[in-house]
RNA sequence: GGCUCCGUAGCUCAAUUGGAUAGAGCAACGCUCUUCUAAAGCGUAGGUUACUGGUUCGAACCCAGUCGGAGUCACCA
C-alpha cells in the first residue's frame, strides 16, 4: 500500500528543488489531513519553508501547488489558504485506495521487526478480589498485547501474582479464627470474594482491638510522649496504626507469626495458604474469562521473592552496588537524579527491588524478550525509574528494552476509591451492572440473545475505560459507563451492525465494474481508513490504546452520517452500489479489527 | 518541604506532538422514523485552554513565575 503522505512530501521536495533550486529534507515538511471546513484531502504547511526560500508562505504554497498539480496525475486540485496548501486527490486515486484495501487485507497493520516482547499486567494480590483499578490495568495490558501482535511483534503475556506476604496471612488468620470451616461453596460465594471477606473481617477485628487499646494507659502514655506536633489524639492514632500493628497488636503478632511460619515452610500453614490461594485463583479465572483475557505464563511471588540475590552479589563484586558497614547493600543512583536505594537488608533478606531485579533476569532467560513492558499504576513511577536505572547500571542486555506503562488511578465521581471506606468498585459487581443495563436496553428492542447482550455490555464498560489516555487519572462514573449512546462502545458496534445488515441483504452482489466517481463523504471515509495504519503505529510507539479507541469512534461516527445520507442498496447506479458495498465491507472489517485490538467484540445484530 | 505529573465547555474526554475559526459525547432545548435497524442523524446553546509574563509567522502544547490538585520521598507494594 503506497504511503500517500510520503508521496506528497516527495513531490513537494521535488517541487522546491525545481522552483527554488533548494534542497529540503522530509523533516522540514508537515502534511496533515485537511480540516473539515476546507476543501481538500491533505494539507501541506509551508510556514517552515519561508525563511529558507526567502518568500512568503502563501507564495510558496501557490507555486508548490501549481507544480504538484502538474507533476502528479493523482492530484486533482489545489487551493491556497494563507500558508496552507490544500490538496485534493483524484477520484481514481481514491478508488484505487479501496481496491488496494481489498487486495491487501493487512493494509491497516504497521510493520515492525518481529522482536520479542513481554507484557506484564494485572498482577493482583491474592487476599481480595479484583476491582476497578485492576480492570483498567487489564484492559491496557490486553490492548498493548493485541496491538503489538498486530504490529508484527512476538508477544507473551505474563503476570506476577503477589501470593505471599502479610496481606494473605491476614485473610488466612481471620479464616482460621472465625471461619468455622466455611468454604466458598458452603457460603454460596464466588471464591475470591469469599477470601476477601475474611480479609475485611481481619481489618474489622483489628480496628476493634486498636480502638480498645487506645483507651489503655499504655496508649495514652505513648500519645503524651510523642505529641511534639500539634496533632489531636484522633489524628495521632490514625497515623500510628502501622506501628501499633507491628509493636502492640495481638492480631498483628499472630499474622506476623503466620508469615514466619510460612517462610519456615510449616506444613499446616502452607496447606492453609494453598487452600485459600486456590480459592482466589478460581475466582480470578472467572473474572478474566468474563473480561476475555488470558496469559501465557504466571509468575508467583512465592517462587520469585528470593530471586535477585546472586545478581546483587555479582554487582557488588563489580562495584556497581556497594555494601554498608552494617552489611546492607545499596546502589547509588544519584548520578541519574535519583537516590541511594536499598537492595538487601542487613540481615540478608530481600526487598521488592531485589525481587524485581531477579524476576527481570529470569524472564529474559526464559523468553529472550528484547522488550519488557510493565503495566503498573503511576504511584510506582519512582520505583520503576530506580529499577530500570539500576538494571542499566548493572549493564544487563535487556536494560534498554524496559518500559513502565504507567497509568493514572481511577477515581469515582465522589472521589478516591478507598478500601478503608468501603467504596471500592468490585470488578465482578461492575460487570454484572453493565450486563444488566445492556439486557434492559436490549429487551426494549426485543433482543434477547445473551451473547449479544454480553458483547454490548462489555463493550460499554471496556470502551469507557480504554478511550482515556492511560497516563491520565480518570473519573469512572458507573452511570455513564453503562450508556449505550454517544461516544460509547455500543455506538461503534451499531455502526458495524448496520453494515452487516446491509451486507446480509445484498448477498453476493459483485457485479458492476463500471467506473464510479466517489463522492466527498466516501473520499473522507477512505482517507480515514488509510490513516489507520499510522494511528496504530502511533498507539504502539506511545503505548497508548486510547488513540485506537478514538480512531474507531471517529470512523463509526463518520459512517453513521454516511449511512443516514447515502443509500447503498438503493443506489442511483449499479456502479455506485458495487462501490459502496465494497466500501462498507472494508469499513466493517476495519471496525472489527481495530476494536478487537481493544478487546471489544462486535455483534452481528443488536 | 524536595522531586514528578496534572489543570481544556456545567460534567466526561479529544485536539494528528508548535498549525487554520480549540473539537466530540453527556446533560438542556428544538427537528428528523411507512426508509439498508432511530443504540442513529441534523440544529441551537455552551470556552480569556487555571492565572501572569516570555519565546515566534503562529502557543492548550515550549520557557519562567503564581495559584490549585494528585503521586512520591519506607529495610511497604
Which CATH class of the domain at 118-304 and 368-411?
A: Alpha Beta
Which percent band covers the strand fraction? 5-15%
Placed side by side, the strands forming the largest sheet appear as 7-6-5-11-12
Let me know the CATH homologous superfamily of the domain at 118-304 and 368-411: HUPs
Helix content: 55-70%
Examine the coordinates and then state which fold CATH places here, giving the name of the CATH topology of the domain at 118-304 and 368-411. Answer: Rossmann fold
Q: What about the largest sheet?
A: 5 strands, parallel
Main location: cytoplasm
GO biological process, one term: arginyl-tRNA aminoacylation
Domain DALR anticodon binding: 492-606
Family: Belongs to the class-I aminoacyl-tRNA synthetase family.
Which helices and strands appear, and what pairs or packs with what?
Elements: H1 4-20, E1 30-33, E2 42-45, H2 50-53, H3 57-71, E3 75-81, E4 84-89, H4 91-103, E5 116-120, H5 132-150, E6 154-161, H6 166-178, H7 184-187, H8 191-214, H9 217-226, H10 233-239, H11 241-247, H12 250-263, H13 267-291, E7 297-300, H14 301-304, H15 309-317, E8 321-323, E9 329-332, E10 340-344, H16 352-367, E11 371-377, H17 381-394, E12 402-407, E13 410-411, H18 427-444, H19 450-466, E14 474-475, H20 478-481, H21 489-506, H22 520-542, H23 546-565, H24 574-597
Parallel strand pairs: 5-6, 5-11, 6-7, 11-12, 13-14
Antiparallel strand pairs: 1-2, 2-4, 3-4, 8-9, 9-10
The chain binds one RNA strand of 77 nucleotides through strand 1, helix 17, strand 14, helix 21 and helix 22.
Amino acid at each position: 500500500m503506497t504511503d500517500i503522505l510520503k508521496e506528497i512530501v516527495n513531490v513537494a521536495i521535488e517541487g522546491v528543488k525545481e522552483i527554488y533550486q533548494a534542497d529540503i529534507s522530509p523533516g522540514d515538511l508537515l502534511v496533515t489531513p485537511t480540516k473539515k471546513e476546507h476543501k481538500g484531502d491533505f494539507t501541506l504547511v509551508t510556514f517552515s519553508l519561508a525563511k529558507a526560500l526567502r518568500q512568503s508562505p502563501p507564495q510558496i504554497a501557490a507555486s508548490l501547488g501549481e507544480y504538484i498539480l502538474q507533476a502528479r496525475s493523482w492530484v486533482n486540485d489545489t487551493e491556497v489558504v494563507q500558508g496552507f496548501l490544500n490538496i485534493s486527490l483524484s477520484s481514481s486515486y481514491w478508488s484505487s485506495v479501496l481496491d488496494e484495501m481489498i487486495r491487501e487485507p493487512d493494509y491497516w497493520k504497521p510493520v515492525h521487526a518481529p522482536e520479542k516482547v513481554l507484557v506484564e499486567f494485572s498482577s493482583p494480590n491474592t487476599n481480595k478480589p479484583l476491582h476497578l483499578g485492576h480492570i483498567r490495568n487489564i484492559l491496557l495490558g490486553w490492548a498493548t498485547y493485541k496491538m503489538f501482535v498486530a504490529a508484527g511483534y512476538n508477544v507473551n503475556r505474563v503476570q506476577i501474582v503477589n501470593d505471599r506476604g502479610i496481606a494473605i496471612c491476614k485473610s488466612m488468620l481471620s479464616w482460621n479464627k472465625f471461619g468455622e470451616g466455611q468454604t466458598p461453596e458452603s457460603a454460596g460465594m464466588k471464591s475470591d470474594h469469599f477470601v476477601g471477606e475474611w480479609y475485611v473481617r481481619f481489618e474489622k477485628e483489628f480496628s476493634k482491638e486498636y480502638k480498645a487499646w487506645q483507651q489503655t494507659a499504655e496508649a495514652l502514655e505513648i500519645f503524651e510522649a510523642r505529641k511534639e506536633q500539634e496533632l489531636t489524639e484522633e489524628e495521632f492514632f490514625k497515623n500510628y496504626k502501622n506501628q501499633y500493628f507491628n509493636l502492640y497488636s495481638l492480631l498483628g503478632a499472630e499474622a506476623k507469626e503466620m508469615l514466619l511460619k510460612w517462610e519456615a515452610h510449616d506444613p499446616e500453614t502452607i496447606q492453609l495458604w494453598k487452600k485459600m490461594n486456590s480459592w482466589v485463583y478460581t475466582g480470578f479465572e472467572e473474572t478474566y474469562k468474563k473480561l476475555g483475557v488470558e496469559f501465557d505464563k504466571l509468575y508467583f511471588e512465592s517462587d520469585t521473592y528470593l530471586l535477585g540475590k546472586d545478581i546483587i552479589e555479582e554487582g557488588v563484586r563489580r562495584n556497581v552496588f556497594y555494601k554498608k558497614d552494617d552489611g546492607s547493600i545499596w546502589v547509588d543512583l544519584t548520578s541519574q537524579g535519583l537516590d541511594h536505594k536499598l537492595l538487601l537488608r542487613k540481615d540478608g533478606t530481600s526487598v521488592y527491588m531485589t525481587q524485581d531485579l531477579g524476576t527481570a533476569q529470569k524472564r529474559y532467560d526464559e523468553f529472550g524478550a528484547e522488550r519488557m513492558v510493565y503495566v503498573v499504576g503511576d504511584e510506582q513511577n519512582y520505583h520503576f525509574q530506580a529499577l530500570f536505572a539500576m538494571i542499566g547500571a548493572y549493564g544487563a542486555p535487556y536494560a534498554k528494552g524496559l518500559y513502565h506503562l504507567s497509568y493514572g488511578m481511577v477515581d469515582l465521581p465522589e472521589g478516591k476509591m478507598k478500601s478503608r471506606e468501603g467504596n471500592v468498585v468490585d470488578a465482578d459487581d461492575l460487570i454484572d451492572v453493565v450486563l444488566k443495563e445492556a439486557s434492559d436496553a436490549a429487551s426494549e428492542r426485543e433482543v434477547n440473545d445473551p451473547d449479544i447482550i454480553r458483547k454490548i455490555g462489555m463493550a460499554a464498560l471496556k470502551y469507557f475505560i480504554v478511550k482515556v489516555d492511560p497516563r491520565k487519572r480518570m473519573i469512572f462514573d458507573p452511570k455513564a459507563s453503562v450508556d449505550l449512546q454517544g461516544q460509547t462502545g455500543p455506538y461503534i458496534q451499531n455502526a458495524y451492525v448496520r453494515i452487516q445488515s446491509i451486507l446480509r441483504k445484498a448477498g453476493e452482489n459483485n457485479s458492476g465494474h463500471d467506473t464510479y466517481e466517489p463522492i466527498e463523504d466516501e473520499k473522507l471515509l477512505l482517507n480515514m481508513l488509510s490513516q489507520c495504519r499510522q494511528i496504530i503505529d502511533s498507539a504502539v510507539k506511545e503505548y497508548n490504546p486510547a488513540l485506537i479507541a478514538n480512531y474507531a469512534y471517529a470512523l463509526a461516527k463518520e459512517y453513521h452520517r454516511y449511512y443516514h445520507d447515502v443509500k447503498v442498496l438503493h443506489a442511483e447506479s449499479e456502479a455506485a452500489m458495487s462501490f459502496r458495498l465494497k466500501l462498507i465491507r472494508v469499513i466493517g472489517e476495519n471496525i472489527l479489527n481495530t476494536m478487537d485490538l481493544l478487546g471489544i467484540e462486535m455483534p452481528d445484530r443488536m
